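Retry 2 of 3 after timeout on previous attempt. Resubmitting C-alpha cells to design endpoint.
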C-alpha cells in the first residue's frame, strides 16, 4: 500500500518527476517540456510551454469521453426554492454559447472579465466561458459593497463585467445591479460592456448601450471552441485582503492550477469520477474557485452550488438534507458554519432525520478549527472530520490529511501534515528553523508548487515585499504556529493585521482607513476579538477630534454604517467604542496585539516599549462597557 510518507518522499526526491506525472491527469494540446521554470527565480512558473485549456479539461473532455449525461452542477437554493441539475453536455453547450456571445462582443485571450454574482450556476458558467476563451476572470464576492468593487475594477481593468440583477440573503435582497452602477460611478476605468443576468426576484434597470441581457446577448451566436493557452497564461485574478485598503490581486496560472487541483481531488478529498462533492462556500472566495468550480469539474464529479446558509434556510438540517439528497461523498465547509449548526441543534436532532451513509469524510478550512467543533461534528456524523490549512495565495491545501492516499491519525487542533510540493518550516525572527514544538513564523521553502500564486496582478514589487523579502528563499505565509515531533502542523495566529470573521479574510487596515475618513475621527484602531460563533469579530477604537460635541453613540452608529457602505456587510463591523487615547509604543506604533489580549481576557506582558501604561486601563474600561472580559497583565 502506498503511504503518505512514500508520496511526500517521492516528491521531495524528484519534484520534476512528481509534477510531470501529475500533469498526466490533464489533457494538453501540447505537453510541457518540463515542470518547473525557474529562470526568473525567486519568481517561479510551472508548465509554461505546455498548451492547455481549463474549460476543456473541466467540461468538454468529460462529454467527449461519453460522460455527457452525468450531472455536472446541482443548484440547490433554499432561499429561492429552486433546484436544478445541469449535465456535462448541457454545461458544455451553455458555456460554449456564452463564450461565443462574449467573443462576438470582442472578448478574447488575456482580456479581463469581472464577475459579480451570487451562488447561481451562471456564475460558474461565466468563469468557464472566460476560461474557454483564455479571458482572465476576476470574481468579486457579493458581500462587498460598491467601493470595493470599484477598487477591483480600477485594478483589473476589465473589458466586460458580468453581474446578476440581485442576490438573496435571508430577509433581504442584495441589489447587485445598483451596486455595480454605483461602482462604475466611482471607478476611473469603464468596461466596454456589461452583461446582466436578470433574476426573477428582482429585474434590474438596464443602461442602454452599455448593458446586455444574459439571454438576449447569446441569441443566435456561434458557440465558441476552447482556445489553447500557454501553461503560464493567467486563468484568473482573485483579490484578497492584505494589510492595507488596497486588496492584493492573486494571480493563478492556468496549467499549474488545473494540474494541482486535479491531483487533490483523489489524493486529498478521496473522490472519483461520478462522485458528488460539495464545498459549501461562495464563488467569490478561493474555496469557491478551487472546489465549487474547477476542482470537482476537472475530476468529473457533480458539484453543488448552494444558495443558502447553514441555519435559517430553513433550519439547521439543510446541510444534512443536501448531503443525503445528492449523495455527497466529501463535504467541505468552514468551522463557523458548524458552530452555527451546533448552536441551534447541539444534540443533532436534524442529523438523525437523514440517511447520511453516502458521506465518507468532511473537510474544514478558512479559519482555525476549534477542537469542540471538530469533536461535535465527528460525534454527530460518524466520519473523519479533516481540518486542512490553505490560503487564497496557494489555491489548494498546504497541509491536510490525504484521505485518498492514506488516512493518517487525526490530531484534533492540527490540520495534519504538509502536502507534496510544500516544504513547510517554522522560522524564528532571524529566519532560522526552530525546534519541533517551538512557535515561529510559518514559511514555505521556494519554489511553491504548481497552482500557487506566481505573482500579484500588476504588483510584482508588492508580491516580493509581502511574501519573499522577510525570509529570503522562503514564501512567508503570514501565519504563525509550530510543527510537532510527528511533523503535524499547528496554525495559531496571523502575524499581520488580517483577521478572520466567519471564515472570511478581512483587513483591519482597510477598516481603519474607512473609520479615519469620518470627519469626527482623529485616530483609530481596529482589532479582531474572539467570538464564539464567527471566530473573530472586528472591534474599532475611535479617538475623536478635539471639540467634537456629537454624542459618542451617534459617531459609533455613523462609522458602523460607513464600513458597511464602503467595504460591505461581509466586514461584519458592528462594534466600536470611543476612547481618549490609544496605547502606543514610544515610537508611535499602536499596540493592537496587547489590546486583543485585553479584550480576549488573555494574560499578557506590558510591552517594555509602551509609552504610557495607564492607557491600558482606559482601554480595559472601554472594553468592559462593551461586555468584554478584560485581561490582566502577567506579573513578571
Ligand atoms: N452577498 C451579500 N451579503 C452577504 C453575502 C453575500 N454573498 N454573504 C454574507 N453577506 C452578509 C450577511 O447577510 C450579513 O449581513 P447582515 O449584517 O445584514 O446580517 C453579513 O454579510 C455578514 O455575513 P457572515 O459573517 O457570513 O454572517 P451570516 O449572518 O451571513 O452567517 C454564519 C454566518 C454564522 C451562518 C456562518 O456560519 C457562515 O456560514 N458563514 C459563511 C462561512 C463561509 O462560507 N466561509 C467561506 C470560506 S470557506
Ligand atoms: P483565505 O485566504 O481567505 O483562505 O484565508 C487564509 C487564512 O485563513 C490563512 O492564512 C489562515 O490564517 C486562515 N486559515 C485557513 N485555513 C485554516 C486552518 N485550517 N486553520 C487555521 N487557520 C486557517
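Retry 2 succeeded. Sequence:
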Amino acid at each position: 500500500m502506498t503511504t503518505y510518507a512514500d508520496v511526500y518522499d517521492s516528491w521531495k526526491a524528484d519534484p520534476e518527476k512528481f509534477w510531470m506525472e501529475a500533469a498526466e491527469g490533464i489533457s494538453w494540446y501540447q505537453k510541457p517540456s518540463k515542470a518547473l521554470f525557474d529562470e526568473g527565480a525567486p519568481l517561479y512558473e510551472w508548465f509554461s510551454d505546455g498548451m492547455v485549456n481549463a474549460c476543456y479539461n473541466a467540461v468538454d473532455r468529460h462529454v467527449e469521453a461519453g460522460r455527457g449525461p452525468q450531472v455536472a452542477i446541482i443548484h440547490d437554493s433554499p432561499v429561492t426554492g429552486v433546484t436544478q441539475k445541469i449535465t456535462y453536455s448541457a454545461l458544455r453547450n451553455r458555456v460554449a454559447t456564452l463564450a461565443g456571445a462574449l467573443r462576438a462582443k470582442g472578448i478574447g485571450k488575456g482580456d479581463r472579465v469581472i464577475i459579480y454574482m451570487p451562488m447561481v450556476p451562471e456564475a460558474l458558467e461565466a468563469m468557464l466561458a472566460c476560461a474557454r476563451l483564455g479571458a482572465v476572470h476576476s470574481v468579486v464576492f457579493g458581500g462587498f459593497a460598491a467601493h470595493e468593487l470599484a477598487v477591483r475594477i480600477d485594478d483589473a481593468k476589465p473589458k466586460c463585467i458580468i453581474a446578476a440583477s440581485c442576490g438573496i440573503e435571508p430577509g433581504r435582497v442584495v441589489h447587485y445591479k445598483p451596486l455595480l452602477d454605483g461602482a462604475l460611478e466611482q471607478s476611473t476605468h469603464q468596461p466596454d460592456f456589461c452583461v446582466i443576468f436578470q433574476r426573477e426576484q428582482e429585474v434590474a434597470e438596464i443602461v442602454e448601450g452599455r448593458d446586455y441581457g444574459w439571454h438576449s446577448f447569446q441569441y443566435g451566436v456561434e458557440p465558441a471552441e476552447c482556445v489553447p493557452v500557454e501553461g503560464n497564461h493567467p486563468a484568473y485574478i482573485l483579490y484578497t485582503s492584505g494589510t492595507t485598503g488596497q486588496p492584493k490581486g492573486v494571480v493563478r496560472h492556468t496549467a499549474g492550477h488545473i494540474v494541482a487541483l486535479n491531483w487533490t481531488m483523489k489524493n486529498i478529498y478521496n473522490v472519483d469520477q461520478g462522485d458528488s462533492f460539495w464545498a459549501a462556500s461562495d464563488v467569490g472566495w478561493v474555496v469557491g474557485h478551487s472546489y465549487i468550480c474547477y476542482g470537482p469539474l476537472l475530476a468529473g464529479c457533480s458539484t453543488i452550488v448552494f444558495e443558502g446558509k447553514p441555519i435559517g434556510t430553513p433550519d439547521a438540517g439543510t446541510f444534512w438534507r443536501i448531503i443525503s439528497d445528492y449523495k455527497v461523498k466529501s463535504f467541505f465547509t468552514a468551522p463557523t458554519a458548524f458552530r452555527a449548526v451546533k448552536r441551534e441543534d447541539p444534540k443533532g436532532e436534524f442529523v438523525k432525520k437523514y440517511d447520511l451513509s453516502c458521506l465518507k469524510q468532511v473537510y474544514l478550512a478558512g479559519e482555525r478549527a476549534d477542537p469542540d467543533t471538530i469533536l461535535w461534528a465527528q460525534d454527530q456524523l460518524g466520519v473523519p472530520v479533516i481540518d486542512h490549512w490553505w490560503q487564497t495565495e496557494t489555491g489548494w491545501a498546504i497541509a491536510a490529511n490525504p484521505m485518498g492516499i492514506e488516512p493518517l491519525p487525526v490530531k484534533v487542533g492540527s490540520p495534519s501534515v504538509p502536502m507534496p510540493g510544500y516544504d513547510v518550516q517554522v522560522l524564528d525572527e532571524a529566519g532560522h528553523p526552530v525546534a519541533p514544538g517551538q512557535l515561529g513564523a510559518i514559511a514555505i521553502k521556494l519554489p511553491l508548487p504548481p497552482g500557487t500564486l506566481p505573482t500579484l496582478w500588476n504588483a510584482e514589487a508588492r508580491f516580493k515585499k509581502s511574501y519573499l523579502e522577510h525570509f529570503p528563499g522562503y514564501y512567508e505565509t503570514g501565519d504563525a504556529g509550530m510543527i510537532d515531533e510527528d511533523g503535524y502542523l499547528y496554525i495559531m495566529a496571523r502575524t499581520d493585521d488580517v483577521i478572520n470573521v466567519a471564515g472570511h479574510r478581512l483587513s483591519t487596515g482597510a477598516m481603519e482607513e474607512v473609520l479615519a475618513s469620518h470627519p469626527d475621527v482623529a485616530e483609530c484602531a481596529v482589532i479582531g476579538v474572539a467570538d464564539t460563533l464567527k471566530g473573530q469579530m472586528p472591534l474599532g477604537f475611535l479617538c475623536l477630534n478635539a471639540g467634537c460635541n456629537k454624542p459618542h453613540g451617534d459617531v459609533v452608529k455613523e462609522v458602523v454604517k460607513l464600513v458597511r457602505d464602503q467595504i460591505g456587510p461581509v466586514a461584519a463591523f458592528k462594534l466600536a467604542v470611543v476612547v481618549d487615547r490609544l496605547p502606543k509604543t514610544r515610537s508611535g506604533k499602536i499596540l493592537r496585539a496587547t489590546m486583543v489580549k485585553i479584550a480576549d481576557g488573555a494574560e499578557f506582558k506590558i510591552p517594555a516599549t509602551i509609552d504610557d501604561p495607564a492607557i491600558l486601563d482606559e482601554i480595559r474600561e472601554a472594553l468592559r462597557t462593551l461586555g468584554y472580559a478584560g485581561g490582566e497583565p502577567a506579573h513578571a
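Attempt log closed. The two ends are 54 Å apart (CA to CA).
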